[in-house]
Amino acid sequence: MDKVIKDLLDTYKVTKQTRDFLSKPLGMYIDGKFVSGNANETLDVMEPSTGKHLAQIARGNEQDINDAVSSAKQAFEGEWAAYKPRAREQVMRKISDLIRENLQTIAELECLDSGKAISGCKAVDIAGAANVWEYFAGWATKISGSTRDTSMPGEYFTYTQKEPVGVVGAIVPWNWPFAMATWKLAAPLAAGCTVVLKPAELTSLSMLYFMTLCEQAGLPKGVINIVTGKGSIVGTALSTHPDIAKVSFTGSTEVGKLIGKNIADDIKHVTLELGGKSPMIAFNDADTDALARATLGSIYFNAGQVCSAGSRLYVQRGVYDEVVEKIKKIAESIKLGTGLDPQTQMGPVISKAQQQSIMNYIEIGKKEGARLVTGGYALEQDGFFIKPTLFADTTNDMRIVQEEIFGPVLVMQVFDTEDEVVALANDNEFGLASSIWTQDVSRVHRMVPQIKAGNVWVNIHDPGDPNMAFGGVKHSGVGKDLGPEQLEHYLESKTVWINIGAKND
Ligand code: NAP
Ligand code: MG
Q1: Cβ neighbours of residue 457 under 8 Å, at least 6 residues apart?
Q2: What's the rounded mean pLDDT across residues 260-289?
Q3: Are 187 and 331 part of one and the same domain?
Q4: Lower Cβ count inside 10 Å, N or C end of the chain?
């Protein structure tokens, strides 16, 4: 182990479980076993606050996907199919309990791998994931079809019955490795599906550790398989595999479009949770303190690598200067540091490449004539840190206003009227989330239907609950994660007609 990493583990007194896990070779998880993969190749994993080598993961290939899908198919048709709803509920509840019991270790692995700040990671990512498992565990026993009345001449017994869609291929990004994977696993398991999941190559550790918890919970082999490796190889093989009935993807719009094309030949089910450039809209009567504070849980949370982050802020003229000052103050107060430090509010971004991409956007913003209020630079030290950044006086034709930067960069502009700001907010290719800040309830009700986004929040940004579906419109995707809506995406509805008119006596 690298000396710098070892010191990090010592300084922050990481758990024995974390150390033990990192000291062993990490395989993929296929058919109930950790395996090194058919090619026996590896990928290096970096710790983002130091840029130092943290671990090696297996580099999977097409054959590994074939093995994993075959195992998932066997479980789907065999052992898992024999699990009654309550048995599915019980094992899922056990998984939820084990996540809570192992919260510290999961969070440590997640923060070392992704750079996330541990306090937020524990409270939001990992505790939230336990809640999602618990929520969907409850759904396993509540899936039902319905009887129907028909008007066709004759006598019929007519009903619908729900069936799991089959083996699911799930692909997740690096910004919420554990949480996004959870969103892709719990609903299909409740529905009776099995899953092959590909984590992002940059952040596979927490999901591998998670499989040790699934073993403890007694989850049958093949129900969840984890294949690590490159998206271009493993992700492509997974999303095009003929035995995959549904692809559930969270990631960039670019790759989402590719997946959409790849699945067309096979007519697979699909959910795509893609990028965003979500507007926050604040009127003169807004609580500007609450608005400024909300940036801490949004664009300045997880170093801005949040798909639904309020990354564009439109403020009415009367409070514009005041909001600029309040957010500047908050941005400048944020404590940057290594993910493992409980005092850290913002960790590094995920990689050197991501840091460069964000810095490139900051340069573009300056050239486009936006006013840099604070931040705008990378820290000159090891690790991939970027100072929380605020651009004011932007206009909608700027690239920094239109494109997803995926870093701690907020762009602000002034507006005068409700109609004007609705048009500005909707003038974007994405439609994931939005928030409206006002005390005027009539205005809220006028605006909610007009905002083209999958989520509209009022006087809050980025709330979450497993019972509230999450997903985007336009280039932010199709389908929903969470809530009863997500469960439906993993169920086929079979329509049954039984002719009961003919008597044989
Ligand atoms: P990404 O580059 O699209 O990668 C996402 C996943 O797809 C990774 O596991 C990646 O593997 C894999 N992949 C790459 N190429 C593939 C291919 N040709 N076929 C199949 N899979 C492929 O996205 P990212 O950079 O990791 O994540 C950031 C993006 O995710 C942002 O745009 C963000 O807005 C979006 N996001 C959306 C939501 C939402 O709910 N809407 C939530 C979180 C993030 P490798 O890592 O190995 O390349
Ligand atoms: Mg990493």
Answers
A1: 433, 434, 435, 436, 463
A2: 97
A3: no
A4: C
Tell the residue number behind the tokens 């303190």, with chain if given.
289
Integer Cα distance of 269 and 480 in angstroms: 13
Residues 6+ away with beta carbon under 8 Å from 325: none
Residues 129 and 205 in one domain: yes
Domain annotation covers residue 134 = yes
User: Domain range holding 217?
Assistant: 3-274+480-491
Quick one: pLDDT at residue 322?
A: 98
Same domain, 269 and 396: no
Strand partners, 491: 164
The pLDDT of residue 413 is above 90:
yes
Distance from the alpha carbon of residue 175 to the mean position of ligand 1, in angstroms: 9
C-alpha of 221 from chain center: 25
Residue 500 lies inside a defined structural domain of this protein: no
Residue of minimum CA distance from atom 34 in ligand 1: 275
Exposed/middle/buried for residue 216 (C-beta within 10 Å: 0-12, 13-18, 19+):
middle
Q: Are residues 243 and 292 in the same domain?
A: no
d(CA 93, CA 186): 10
Residue 374 to residues 6, 197, 371, 385, 411, Cα–Cα distance (Å): 35, 40, 9, 15, 11
> Residue 118 above 80 pLDDT?
yes
| Total structural domains within the chain | 2
Mutate to test the pocket of ligand 1, among 61, 206, 250 (most ligand atoms within 8 A of CB): 250
* Torsion (CA) 325, 326, 328, 333 in degrees, nearest 10: 140
The catalytic residues are 273, 307
In a domain, 177, yes or no: yes
Asked whether the whole model's pTM tops 0.70, one would answer yes
Report the CATH number that the domain containing residue 344 is assigned in CATH.
3.40.309.10
Same domain, 341 and 440: yes
Note the ligand closest to the C-alpha atom of 203. 2
**Residue 390 reports pLDDT greater than 80:** yes
Same domain, 85 and 141: yes
316-365 tens-digit pLDDT: 999 999 999 999 999 999 999 999 999 999 999 999 999 999 999 999 99
Is residue 504 one of the residues assigned to a domain?
no
Distance from Cα 10 to the centre of ligand 1, integer Å: 33
**Spacing, Cα 140 to ligand 1 middle (Å):** 29
Q: How far is the CA of 224 from the centre of ligand 2 (A)?
A: 22
At 1 the pLDDT is: 84
Give, for ligand 1, the residue of 171, 196, 278 to mutate: max count of ligand atoms closer than 8 Å to Cβ.
Answer: 171
| Closest alpha carbon to 232 in 203, 262, 210 | 262
* Residue nearest atom 45 in ligand 1 by C-alpha distance: 231
